[in-house]
Amino acid sequence: MSDRQTLRDWLLTETPTSRRHAKLSALYHGWLTFRSNSMAMLGLAILVALVLTALFAPLLAPLDPFEQNLSQRLLPLGAENHLFGTDSLGRDILSRLIYGARITLYIVALVALIAPIVGLLVGTVSGYVGGWIDTVLMRVTDIFLAFPRLVLALAFVAALGAGIENAVIAISLTAWPPYARIARAETLTIRSSDYISAIKLQGAGPLRIITKHIWPLCISSLIVRVTLDMAGIILAAAGLGFLGLGAQPPSPEWGAMISEGRRFILDHWWVATMPGLAIFTVSLAFNLLGDGLRDVLDPKAGD
Known about the structure:
By secondary structure, the protein is mostly helical. The protein has one domain (25-64, 93-297): MetI-like (MetI-like fold), CATH 1.10.3720. 72% of the residues lie in helices and 0% in strands. It is built from twelve helices and no strands. The longest helix has 37 residues, at 93-129. The chain is flat. It starts with 6 loop residues before the first helix and ends in a 6-residue tail after the last helix.
């Protein structure tokens, strides 16, 4: 990059001078496309705020989320020292929502690490190897897809036992089949390409071809699918918490907070409404982010 050439011009050039330059240029073009989508930027801003809220929860929460005060139970919105009111045990709802963001991110992060990786492994092996292995793996995938996600998660949690870690495992076990389908479809398209044939002639084995040449081409589709699936994962976790099979009391999990507040929904609506709005906002943010990433990463977006 010369002295007269700005960083922006260097990134927007159509003639990159190195592989690193080309990658940085592609990233910058993707960022410009993403930034032009105002709704995607809104989703990103909400999720950044959620992450910061979870990180600095002890500083942001006005009160201890576990502290009970029965003399101040079911206080309304805007009550003194309780902006979002209190629940049936006198605990500050705002503080519990702030600490509940940690649980939500914990669940989302673990499921996002487990499910796509399992799906990628199953899908690429199935698509590349083919034959009876493909048939067996896809029939197993079909069995998982035949059940509603929440019902299957309930069955796994019932077998494993209630708890947030078991809820994460159960949700992950129900979330991987769509990723396997996507990875298999991508692999079936890629494995017959000319450059794959050339790599085989050079002596590359199946493991190297899958990990070095097929996985990188599947990642973009999986990233888009992950962001769009996050809303469903959050709702599944909240559903398990609502039924008492997720995070256990007194943990400030949003689904469990809704379950507790349903008894007072007519007279003290804010107890269940505030955590419900939190789930709605975060789910919407992930959907908006996913739409923006699809515009950037989907290779068919420009067709």
